[in-house]
Amino acid sequence: MQKANAKEQFLKNFGAPAEELFTAAGRINVIGEHVDYCGGKVFPAALNLRCNVYGKKTGSDKIRLAFNGIEGSVELDIHSLDGYRNLKIGNYQAGVALELQNKGIALVGCDLYYDCTVPFGSGLSSSAAIEVSTAVALCEYAGVAYDKVELAKLSQKAENEYAGVNCGIMDQFASAMGKKDHAILLDCATLAYEYVPLQLGEYCLVVANCNKPHSLVESKYNERRQEVEAALKIIQTSKNVSCLAELSMQDFAEVKPLLSGTLLPRTEHVVAECERVNRAVTALKAGDLAELGKLLNESHFSLRDLYEVTGKELDALSAHARAHKDCLGSRMIGGGFGGCTISIVKKSAVADFIAQVGAAYCAEIGYAATFYETSIEDGVTVSKL
Ligand code: GLA
């Protein structure tokens, strides 16, 4: 249905049929939150919620963009890609195109129609999915070979420098490199990675959006990043480390007296969360889901109390999830201040979980949460139509 509709819309917008489909994934993160930009390990997985880009090469010097659900279109001139920073829609695409050009790639004009099923502002990385799918489309049309990890890095750079969000590498990496039914254990300091089967037996992950209106998320995110960078500088006066993730809990105890104000709890979160990632991967590999659930809860409490990126909506949603008898653990994912939670729930109890948690959340917060049917899929895909 959706596919046919998108193809029709492409034809309507651009007057000729689409010839290719490029997709990149939204993501969840099992554990390892707000540590990617501290050189920590993260454990994301790519979703069936995706940015689908229908495309056709035109050979002109324009990249034309149209979007499902948004009226009108945007035209990017490939000779003046620096000039679209203030666009509300189309700036991610322009940023990626400019980064490709800066790498010496001769861009070729094309028409692109975006049918994004990753909900915007949900903490499921719609922006990374848009960037990565665009990067792949533009490389294909330019006729250049590309490496998916390089495209993830380039997409992150575009988000940092063009869109002004100082994000880490996790989202773009997961969006590009995801593997069906696997999570990616990614060391953000080296980009070494390992695929780990996300096998939860009689349990599954339920993704829920707290639907908090999006506001000031980017500025608060950038502020956290500045705090941990300041903490690292102070710690480096006494320890020879290149990132906070290199500190053990023992090291943290030693440097604690150096840190004051918010820098202390922020650093404690990062160090403890890095340890939790290792324990979570061990638990998952051993099939110890109760332990994994406990670690998810601890991660949420740390993000709430030490890193202060949750808010009452995410706290309520995860607390109601935790209170359900067939839920092993629940936490916020992504940048926070709104967006989604993941919960480990018994498969046979999912409908009851959604009904109970949904009702309790709505009663407390005053509006409904959204629960998604998700599966873990591959990252980037390219197909001929
Ligand atoms: C956002 C960023 C990521 C990461 C998470 C928090 O999703 O884009 O790089 O920092 O927040 O873990």
General description of the model:
The protein has 385 residues and is α+β, with helices and mostly antiparallel strands. The protein has 2 domains: 3-197 and 379-384, Ribosomal Protein S5, domain 2, CATH 3.30.230; 203-372, 2-Layer Sandwich (Alpha-Beta Plaits). The protein has 11 helices and 13 strands. The chain has helices spanning 2-14, 91-102, 126-142, 148-161, 170-177, 217-236, 249-255, 263-285, 289-305, 312-323, 350-365, and strands at 20-29, 41-42, 44-57, 62-67, 70-77, 110-116, 182-187, 193-197, 203-209, 327-332, 340-346, 370-372, 381-384. It has a 6-stranded mixed beta sheet with strand order 5-4-6-3-1-13, with helices on both faces. Strand 7 and strand 8 form a beta hairpin. The longest helix is centred in the last third of the chain and has 23 residues, at 263-285. The two termini are 15 Å apart. The model has no long low-confidence stretch (mean pLDDT 96). Alpha-D-galactopyranose (GLA) is lined by residues 33-34, 36-37, 125, 167-168, 170-171, 334-335.
Gyration radius from CA atoms, angstroms: 21 Å
Outline the biggest β-sheet: 6 strands, mixed
Give the overall shape.
globular
- CATH topology-level name of the largest domain: Ribosomal Protein S5, domain 2
Descriptive keywords:
Ribosomal Protein S5, domain 2; Alpha-Beta Plaits; 385 residues; 6-stranded mixed beta sheet; alpha+beta; binds alpha-D-galactopyranose
Q: Brief description of this entry?
A:
The protein has 385 residues and is an alpha+beta fold. Helix content is 41%, strand content 22%. The protein has two domains: 3-197 and 379-384, 2-Layer Sandwich (Ribosomal Protein S5, domain 2), CATH 3.30.230.10; 203-372, GHMP kinase, C-terminal domain (Alpha-Beta Plaits, 2-Layer Sandwich).
